[in-house]
Amino acid sequence: MSSTDDAAGEPAEPPDTAPSSPPPARPEQTTPAAKRDPVLVGAVKAAAASALTLTLAMALLIDVGFAIGTFIGGVLATVNLILFIRLGEAWLSQKGTGAPWGILGALKLLGLFTCVAIILRQGAVSALAFAIGYGALPIGIAMSSLFKGKPAA
Fold first, then answer.
1. How far is CA 125 from CA 14, 67, 72, in A?
2. pTM of the entire structure?
3. Where along the chain do its domains lie?
4. pLDDT per residue over 37-50, tens digit each?
């Protein structure tokens, strides 16, 4: 029997070297989703739900081609809102100058305009259908602010 075996002949467990509680998380270790504002998360979900509702309505009321244009506009609106929220959170958590975030915001806006121009210049979808789909953005924001619930006391 070796010195690391117990009386039954099984290997002894090594002494517990793990700390009793995990070390406190540093700010850079926290997950971004854990600190997201529930109102903003609700706005994204409401914009996505609005886009899907508008798409379904256009498919039932007009035709599938119009619904596809509405869907594309709704997806672009939802992605734009997500990027806007992330840029805003990054800017608010940053100390110092806001110039880099202003440049990134301008690039995001330029990217949005470029996407819209490419989609509409190809002529694959109706500009009206696209605009209706993009309307999911203000609808989602309004719905999330109406149904955000009561703040915690």
1. 67, 9, 9
2. 0.69
3. 35-146
4. 788 888 999 999 99
